[in-house]
């Protein structure tokens, strides 16, 4: 798993401000090869959750967008409200942290490929907790 923190706050001696710059990122196949060791290629990741911050440096609100393990549908978690959301609206100036999982590749070295659970959820057919 790789967590990418997007710098959203600029602090100076005089003031701080919220940065709302849109950082465009692919949800599938985020290529991190340029930032990996030379002998580890390719290095694609899939985004499965996004933490968002709306507001200012002095007040704001956090929400989360998460991709369901089985249905692959994206949901927005906003306090006690949960709703489906289009994947087209996930890239925004509010994105604060990206939660990703490395995609398996043909060149994956089994000694360095860690099996990290993508998500712990309940299987609707068996009602048991499962991980991927």
Automatic annotation (TrEMBL):
Biased composition (Polar residues): 122-132
Biological process annotations from GO: protein deubiquitination
Disordered, as annotated region: 108-132
Domain of life, source organism: Eukaryota
Gene3D superfamilies, alphabetized: Cysteine proteinases
Domain USP: 1-103
A molecular-function term among this protein's GO annotations: cysteine-type deubiquitinase activity
Catalytic activity: Thiol-dependent hydrolysis of ester, thioester, amide, peptide and isopeptide bonds formed by the C-terminal Gly of ubiquitin (a 76-residue protein attached to proteins as an intracellular targeting signal)
EC number: 3.4.19.12
Pfam family, one: UCH
Protein name: ubiquitinyl hydrolase 1
Species of provenance: Phaedon cochleariae (Mustard beetle)
